[in-house]
Design goal:
about 180 residues, alpha/beta, Rossmann fold, 2 domains, four-stranded parallel beta sheet, four-stranded mixed beta sheet, 4 helices, DmmA-like_C, Dimethylamine monooxygenase subunit DmmA-like C-terminal domain-containing protein
Protein backbone atom coordinates (compact mmCIF):
# COMPACT_ATOMS: atom_id res chain seq x y z
CA UNK A 1 0.00 0.00 0.00
CA UNK A 2 1.31 3.43 -0.93
CA UNK A 3 0.81 6.08 1.72
CA UNK A 4 1.62 8.96 -0.60
CA UNK A 5 0.60 8.16 -4.17
CA UNK A 6 2.61 9.91 -6.86
CA UNK A 7 1.16 13.16 -8.10
CA UNK A 8 -0.64 12.81 -11.46
CA UNK A 9 1.39 15.79 -12.69
CA UNK A 10 4.68 14.00 -12.02
CA UNK A 11 5.98 16.13 -9.14
CA UNK A 12 5.37 16.64 -5.45
CA UNK A 13 2.00 18.24 -4.77
CA UNK A 14 3.70 20.65 -2.35
CA UNK A 15 5.97 22.17 -5.00
CA UNK A 16 4.84 25.59 -6.16
CA UNK A 17 3.51 26.05 -9.66
CA UNK A 18 4.71 29.17 -11.41
CA UNK A 19 2.95 30.64 -14.42
CA UNK A 20 3.69 32.90 -17.33
CA UNK A 21 1.97 36.27 -17.04
CA UNK A 22 -1.61 36.07 -18.27
CA UNK A 23 -4.25 38.68 -17.62
CA UNK A 24 -7.19 37.25 -15.69
CA UNK A 25 -10.24 38.37 -17.65
CA UNK A 26 -12.54 37.50 -14.73
CA UNK A 27 -10.80 40.01 -12.43
CA UNK A 28 -12.17 43.52 -11.89
CA UNK A 29 -8.87 44.99 -10.71
CA UNK A 30 -5.25 43.92 -11.16
CA UNK A 31 -2.21 44.43 -8.91
CA UNK A 32 1.22 43.65 -10.35
CA UNK A 33 4.10 43.47 -7.87
CA UNK A 34 7.63 43.05 -9.21
CA UNK A 35 10.43 42.09 -6.85
CA UNK A 36 13.84 43.33 -7.99
CA UNK A 37 14.51 44.17 -11.61
CA UNK A 38 11.63 43.29 -13.95
CA UNK A 39 12.38 40.58 -16.52
CA UNK A 40 11.25 40.72 -20.18
CA UNK A 41 7.94 39.04 -19.36
CA UNK A 42 7.26 41.62 -16.62
CA UNK A 43 7.95 44.46 -19.05
CA UNK A 44 5.52 43.03 -21.63
CA UNK A 45 2.85 42.57 -18.95
CA UNK A 46 3.44 46.10 -17.65
CA UNK A 47 2.85 47.45 -21.16
CA UNK A 48 -0.27 45.31 -21.60
CA UNK A 49 -2.06 46.35 -18.39
CA UNK A 50 -2.82 50.01 -19.24
CA UNK A 51 -3.99 49.02 -22.73
CA UNK A 52 -6.33 46.22 -21.64
CA UNK A 53 -7.51 47.45 -18.25
CA UNK A 54 -7.03 51.23 -18.00
CA UNK A 55 -7.83 52.63 -14.55
CA UNK A 56 -8.20 49.09 -13.15
CA UNK A 57 -4.65 48.26 -12.16
CA UNK A 58 -1.81 49.10 -9.81
CA UNK A 59 1.88 48.37 -10.32
CA UNK A 60 4.36 48.19 -7.47
CA UNK A 61 8.11 47.77 -7.83
CA UNK A 62 9.91 46.48 -4.73
CA UNK A 63 13.68 46.62 -4.27
CA UNK A 64 15.31 43.39 -3.09
CA UNK A 65 18.74 42.83 -1.56
CA UNK A 66 20.17 41.43 -4.80
CA UNK A 67 19.40 37.82 -3.80
CA UNK A 68 15.64 38.18 -4.06
CA UNK A 69 15.08 38.77 -0.35
CA UNK A 70 12.90 41.72 0.60
CA UNK A 71 13.70 44.06 3.49
CA UNK A 72 10.67 44.56 5.78
CA UNK A 73 10.23 48.18 4.63
CA UNK A 74 9.74 46.94 1.05
CA UNK A 75 7.34 44.16 2.06
CA UNK A 76 5.26 46.70 4.02
CA UNK A 77 4.67 48.73 0.83
CA UNK A 78 2.15 46.10 -0.34
CA UNK A 79 -0.13 46.49 2.72
CA UNK A 80 -1.98 49.66 1.58
CA UNK A 81 -2.97 47.95 -1.68
CA UNK A 82 -4.02 44.76 0.11
CA UNK A 83 -6.16 46.76 2.52
CA UNK A 84 -8.08 48.14 -0.49
CA UNK A 85 -8.47 44.75 -2.19
CA UNK A 86 -11.98 43.45 -2.69
CA UNK A 87 -13.55 40.38 -4.21
CA UNK A 88 -12.65 40.27 -7.88
CA UNK A 89 -9.14 41.68 -7.49
CA UNK A 90 -6.19 39.65 -8.74
CA UNK A 91 -2.61 39.85 -7.49
CA UNK A 92 0.30 39.03 -9.79
CA UNK A 93 3.60 38.47 -7.94
CA UNK A 94 6.77 38.37 -10.01
CA UNK A 95 10.43 38.02 -9.10
CA UNK A 96 12.98 35.66 -7.58
CA UNK A 97 11.47 32.80 -5.61
CA UNK A 98 12.79 34.08 -2.27
CA UNK A 99 10.93 37.38 -2.69
CA UNK A 100 7.60 35.96 -3.82
CA UNK A 101 6.64 33.90 -0.80
CA UNK A 102 6.73 36.53 1.97
CA UNK A 103 4.39 38.58 -0.24
CA UNK A 104 2.17 35.57 -0.90
CA UNK A 105 1.84 34.88 2.83
CA UNK A 106 1.13 38.58 3.46
CA UNK A 107 -1.64 38.55 0.83
CA UNK A 108 -3.22 35.39 2.30
CA UNK A 109 -3.09 36.91 5.79
CA UNK A 110 -4.79 40.04 4.40
CA UNK A 111 -7.69 37.89 3.17
CA UNK A 112 -6.87 37.09 -0.45
CA UNK A 113 -7.57 33.55 -1.63
CA UNK A 114 -4.86 31.42 -3.31
CA UNK A 115 -6.82 31.43 -6.61
CA UNK A 116 -6.64 35.26 -6.57
CA UNK A 117 -2.82 35.19 -6.70
CA UNK A 118 -0.59 34.33 -9.69
CA UNK A 119 3.12 33.69 -9.24
CA UNK A 120 5.75 34.32 -11.93
CA UNK A 121 9.27 33.25 -10.93
CA UNK A 122 12.32 34.86 -12.46
CA UNK A 123 15.17 32.53 -13.35
CA UNK A 124 17.62 32.37 -10.47
CA UNK A 125 20.69 30.37 -9.55
CA UNK A 126 19.55 30.49 -5.91
CA UNK A 127 16.60 28.96 -4.08
CA UNK A 128 15.27 29.53 -0.58
CA UNK A 129 15.81 26.69 1.88
CA UNK A 130 14.65 26.21 5.46
CA UNK A 131 16.80 24.21 7.87
CA UNK A 132 14.39 22.19 10.01
CA UNK A 133 17.12 21.68 12.62
CA UNK A 134 17.81 25.29 13.59
CA UNK A 135 14.84 27.05 11.98
CA UNK A 136 16.89 29.27 9.69
CA UNK A 137 15.67 30.43 6.27
CA UNK A 138 18.51 31.05 3.81
CA UNK A 139 19.54 30.92 0.17
CA UNK A 140 21.41 28.03 -1.45
CA UNK A 141 22.57 27.38 -4.99
CA UNK A 142 19.77 25.68 -6.91
CA UNK A 143 22.04 22.86 -8.04
CA UNK A 144 23.87 22.34 -4.71
CA UNK A 145 23.48 18.61 -3.87
CA UNK A 146 23.94 19.09 -0.09
CA UNK A 147 24.15 22.74 0.92
CA UNK A 148 25.60 23.57 4.32
CA UNK A 149 23.33 25.42 6.74
CA UNK A 150 24.84 28.84 7.37
CA UNK A 151 23.61 28.82 10.97
CA UNK A 152 24.11 25.31 12.42
CA UNK A 153 26.67 24.02 9.89
CA UNK A 154 24.81 20.78 9.12
CA UNK A 155 24.95 19.36 5.58
CA UNK A 156 21.37 19.38 4.33
CA UNK A 157 19.43 17.18 1.97
CA UNK A 158 16.83 19.32 0.23
CA UNK A 159 13.50 17.52 0.14
CA UNK A 160 11.03 17.58 -2.70
CA UNK A 161 8.74 19.59 -0.44
CA UNK A 162 8.07 23.33 -0.42
CA UNK A 163 6.65 25.04 2.66
CA UNK A 164 4.42 27.93 1.67
CA UNK A 165 4.48 29.15 5.28
CA UNK A 166 8.29 29.31 5.34
CA UNK A 167 8.52 30.21 1.66
CA UNK A 168 11.30 27.69 1.19
CA UNK A 169 12.27 24.12 0.33
CA UNK A 170 12.75 22.01 3.44
CA UNK A 171 16.26 20.88 4.28
CA UNK A 172 16.91 17.97 6.64
CA UNK A 173 20.18 16.51 7.86
CA UNK A 174 21.89 14.65 5.02
CA UNK A 175 23.51 12.05 7.30
CA UNK A 176 20.87 10.66 9.66
CA UNK A 177 23.55 8.62 11.49
CA UNK A 178 25.13 11.88 12.69
CA UNK A 179 22.19 14.30 13.01
CA UNK A 180 24.05 16.97 15.00
CA UNK A 181 27.46 16.70 13.36
CA UNK A 182 28.67 19.80 11.61
CA UNK A 183 29.55 19.32 7.96
CA UNK A 184 33.20 18.54 7.37
CA UNK A 185 35.03 20.92 5.10
Amino acid sequence: MTLHPPSPCGHSASLPVYQAHALRNDARHHILVCVGLPDASDLRFLAELPQRVPHQHHCLMLEDDGDGNLPPAQTARLMPLLSEARTGWHLYLSGPEAGLWPLYVQAIQAGMQPQEISLHRHDSAMRPIYCVHCGTRQQAASQAPQPICGCCGVALEIRDHFSRVQGAYLGVVANADQPYARAST
